[in-house]
Amino acid sequence: MSLLKHILNTIGGNKMTQNTVKKYFGKTNLWLIVILLCAAFLRFYHLDFQSMWMDELYTMVVSNPAMSWAAFHKELIAREGFPHLYFIILKIFYFFFGFTSFTARSVSAIAGIASVYALFLVGKALYNSKTGLVAALLITVSNYHIYISQDARPYTLYFLFVCLSFYRLILFIKNTTWKNALYYAVFTGLLLNFNFFALINVFSQVVILALILVLLPQQERIDFVKKSAVSGAIILGMFAINYQKFIVLMNYKKFWVSPPQPDSFSKIFKTFFGDSEIVLYLIFPLLLYYIFILFKNKEEEIFNYKTLLNNKLFFGFIILFVWFFVMFSFLMIKSYGKISYLLTRYFLSLMPVLFIIIAISIVHIKGKIKQGIVLFVVTFYMFIHLVVVTKQYTTVKHAQYREAAAFVLKNNTEKIPIYSNQAYWYRFYFKDNAIKPKELSLNKLYEKYKKDSILPQKFWYIDAFKRFDSTNLATKTFFNKKYNIKKIFKGHKAWAELYEVRK
């Protein structure tokens, strides 16, 4: 006896009650609940195992609830590449749950879980519930999606609202009502308040709407345009609050990302699947199979509006192709210009497309047993790669700012001055301490003290990331001659040293 039948037999009751149970405890919903519970466990497990890295520490500094709103706004305009909304949400969470790294990362984890559900909705709207479930299961065990879900940055919120925006776009195209138009507008407006790259996603949606408008019967075009225009006005209104920040970003002339290399995109694509060669070997045939089943479909008159909507494969292909092509083309063209955008996180909005395509391919495999085997094998190897190969939950990957700071805090009983080349990023871990790091590199300390006859008896130097450590030979020679290093912490990409003047 199935679980659903057992529940129905247990509760008895009238037909209305049983229909309600079927609605909420049907096979699809039960599988979805299991998937979401797994997603929650994988995203909250060891959530605070890693020290926060540079970008996360910047998040903590700028979202500090002790900072005034005026200072908060000024800091974001000057230094941050994201709109304000994510950081405002963090401030709200801090009010209820405390100003901690766990709280900040919890926002990402919750958004990560929600985005699994949102991807299910997209797959369901484009093809069917099974497609949505398969896509949701695959993203649940995705190494990269789990990584961003444990990262105190707005990427999972971006992923979530990309999915919700396209989900509502699909519903609006299928059923052009005011309700769907308003839902689409609100979700898309929120999307633009989490990431400026969302502007490209919205442009791709405009292209899709233009294609649909061409295919629509003439008598339906005016209503479609009217509702689309109202949605557009709402979206622009919600984006307008970020206009000042957007202008600042447009004036950026340089960026630290390396220019494109022959293997740049392949590395990004590989990262989506956890840098696993085995997973790639499993995924690639499924992507090819999607192309095969697409061209195998011989539906006539696909450029007729109603026929297109009924042809799930081609309708889905149009949505997914434009979604992918516009963003990919923009990032690649821009990257071959003055500023490179070739970072995996900037291509994040392409992940839902790839996972839905893979899900469609698996669903199209003939025979439930074969489908199950393929899905199990792909999911199994993604999970094994996550836990065993990359050791997501047990291997230190972030620079150990937290550990270096803790070492200094524990051993600095004499309240000795602390200097750092990265005092800005260490600020969060010293927020409750009377002695805070001062922004001075060893080179600058050398310039300050080389001519002094009276040197400080003791000082701490704390730093991270060798690429920012530009200590020159003269500096090293001076401090080696004048000082002994009494206490040393050497962690992963972070270190701390206690300098004591030689007697």
Q: How would you explain this protein's 3D organization?
A:
- By secondary structure, the chain is mainly α.
- It folds into two domains: 45-389, no CATH class; 401-501.
- Helix content is 65%, strand content 6%.
- It has 24 helices and five strands.
- The protein has helices at 3-11, 15-25, 27-44, 54-62, 69-79, 85-97, 101-126, 129-140, 143-149, 155-174, 178-191, 198-215, 218-239, 243-250, 264-272, 277-296, 305-310, 312-335, 351-363, 368-389, 401-411, 423-426, 442-449, 473-482, and strands spanning 418-420, 438-439, 458-464, 483-491, 494-501.
- It has a five-stranded mixed sheet with strand order 2-1-3-5-4.
- Strand 1 (418-420), helix 22 and strand 2 form a beta-alpha-beta unit.
- Helix 10 (155-174) packs antiparallel against helix 11, helix 10 runs parallel beside helix 12 and helix 16 (277-296) packs antiparallel against helix 20.
- It starts with a helix and ends with a strand.
- The model has no long low-confidence stretch (mean pLDDT 88).
